[in-house]
Amino acid sequence: TDRAAMLDEIMDYVKFLRLQ
């Protein structure tokens, strides 16, 4: 679903921000 894909992207984005 679109929601699942969006959630996945957000999780990746959060991980990316935490690395910085």
TrEMBL record:
The protein's name: BHLH domain-containing protein
Naturally occurring in which organism (per UniProt): Nymphaea colorata
Lineage: Eukaryota, Viridiplantae, Streptophyta, Embryophyta, Tracheophyta
